[in-house]
Amino acid sequence: MAEYNEKQVRIMEAAEVHFADRGFEGASVREIAESAGVNLAMINYYFGSKEKLMEAVFSHRTAHFTLQLESMVNNKELEPMAKVETLVDTYIDRLLTQQCFHRILVREQMMRSNHTIVDQLVKMKKTNHNLIKALITQGQKKGLFRKNIDVSLLMATLVGTVGHVVSTQHYYKETNDLQDMSDEEFKKYIRKKLSVHVKAIFKAILSNED
Amino acid sequence: MAEYNEKQVRIMEAAEVHFADRGFEGASVREIAESAGVNLAMINYYFGSKEKLMEAVFSHRTAHFTLQLESMVNNKELEPMAKVETLVDTYIDRLLTQQCFHRILVREQMMRSNHTIVDQLVKMKKTNHNLIKALITQGQKKGLFRKNIDVSLLMATLVGTVGHVVSTQHYYKETNDLQDMSDEEFKKYIRKKLSVHVKAIFKAILSNED
Amino acid sequence: MAEYNEKQVRIMEAAEVHFADRGFEGASVREIAESAGVNLAMINYYFGSKEKLMEAVFSHRTAHFTLQLESMVNNKELEPMAKVETLVDTYIDRLLTQQCFHRILVREQMMRSNHTIVDQLVKMKKTNHNLIKALITQGQKKGLFRKNIDVSLLMATLVGTVGHVVSTQHYYKETNDLQDMSDEEFKKYIRKKLSVHVKAIFKAILSNED
Amino acid sequence: MAEYNEKQVRIMEAAEVHFADRGFEGASVREIAESAGVNLAMINYYFGSKEKLMEAVFSHRTAHFTLQLESMVNNKELEPMAKVETLVDTYIDRLLTQQCFHRILVREQMMRSNHTIVDQLVKMKKTNHNLIKALITQGQKKGLFRKNIDVSLLMATLVGTVGHVVSTQHYYKETNDLQDMSDEEFKKYIRKKLSVHVKAIFKAILSNED
DNA sequence: GATGAATGAGCTTTCATTCAT
DNA sequence: GATGAATGAAAGCTCATTCAT
Asked: Any chain C CB within 8 A of the CB of D129?
């Protein structure tokens, strides 16, 4: 795990916002530098290129996620459904606290970009997919979960639903007359709402009713 | 409804692909012109600017959607649940047949861009939201649908799930060993899968079990 | 043969001077544009890149040289020694009238550059070498020229001597108290001097005294 | 004569190669530092600037040359023609053993650069010119050399011919099917060839046949 | 003395756009 | 109406150099 000094972190944080707001191509290194309060040349000095800055942002954010997931799946004390609920809440939490980064991810996944990130991303997605599949299998073996679960679709519903709400929270607020709610309040509010909603879906899909 | 001549349509179609693949900022007017087989200056001549070309692409694609939705909701012959199922299939179909455009939409929604599109988008989303709310209300009045349905979350699940699968279909194929399936086959395959999956969710959430 | 318009020629001529004076790397496209009295972007518009501008300068200058040489060697009416003398005068003339270009050539040959020019240059040098070898052989067959002539060394003496004088003409003037001579006068003066000097060398080396 | 420590010498040697390969402007202080295995800032610390590093390289290489020449010319025991032959061999040897430096010299002489080097170079060339003129005069006084020798042209032939072969040795090898010869072998081979060739020229030009 | 960090100036190139015809 | 020519602005990046330690 690379160690970043204060200035580097400041640059990465500024970059994250710009990449999220304007896209990789739309973001300007000059503006990132300005936002971070550092000299333009500093960015290339520290990261080498715009591309590599992007990679650093990516690594920085995804560093511990898979490990975290792994330890959760392998936890012997939690019941499968509890694990699933934890999973849901973890994802919701991540997306809510790392909204900028989430937008970057969605964007990069969507594009036919040649960025190295995509490769890293694929690898991570596969690992995560397998971990969650293992989790589902645990529940199936205990007879708690239904057979024939399409893990990909299940995860698409989790990530898609939460991601969509987060991405379009502005519309959500407007449509539901919550314009006056502060960002912090809304985050708390929507986290609860999403948690209940997605968990209900997961239970409906997973649980064996027999 | 603006009428576009053949050349203009060719430009818009080329633009759609480029905007989808590389983002608004990443797309180059030069390359769009080349793809469309028209003179570079032609684009500004016909559309005024890159920005306005984007708007044209947007209007072109969304022209009839709300009308279509409206007629469906007001249809007196279909049962509410049948309408919901039609709604689901319509969305799936749209996203699958207009993948490029979908990617553009997701991207634009996510960004803090100043594009005029965003305004149009907000307006359209509101209209659609109200239409679907009306549909839900129809079901509730008939006692078929549960009370306390969060329409926003429900739609987020529809759009989010389908959108996510479409956006990341490459991963889906790889994860589920479908690499050898042709695009056309896969489209057919995933349409069915998504249809069943999302309808199951909608039923679980909407249907009144009492 | 590419046709260049007036502006393109102006750019190439300005480029030639800058490349000669400051080297390829040292020359700035900005300054070339300024010297040529054209917009900076114009250069990339016409030539694509600094590198390709260099190639254009090269092709422009070398376009007819090999052809000229060829027709001279194949001339049935001139005696071999007369051809050699013409060759010497032609080289001297070329170096004197195209001093900037000559400096560029010397420089590029010397450097371990990756420029495409080097390949073109090698090819041209080989062709020229073979033509001159043919010329020498003509003289040998007639019994006028000595056997065992090293064509490479002979040409090195021609090109090296003339090139060195041209490259260091400033020193030559100073050393021989010719500072007050105008450039035009000096060119005339040194052309004659070089012609006599190099022809004497060629005769001494080539002519069969038996 | 400045004394340089081991690190400084390492820097100058690395610089020489880079300046020769890429030109003064094309060479990068960063890369020189890397090649020399020293810290980037070290170079400015020791030499003040890139420019002054160049001057140091120059002084370093030319330090003893004039002295050597002087002692040779003043040598009472050698005959003038023997001196001339020694001169030729000395030049050939210098150019062959200091190829990088030679390339730098040629380049700098050619350019309209403002480097202080040029002044040093002019001064050195003048001194050398006078020494060689003295040598020629010795031969003329003894009736061995022809009158009316243009020392500048004579030296141009020596330096030009040898320099051209050295600069374009790659072509020489290819043209004469010597690609498989090692650098060391070729150096030996071409030294002999050049020696014979140039001495023959010098004799033809200098020697009084009456 | 020695150096990692930092920077202003400059580089080539590409961009969306405009204009003259 | 249609387009080749042209351009100002801005992009990412590298440079030689300096400075604080």
From this structure: yes
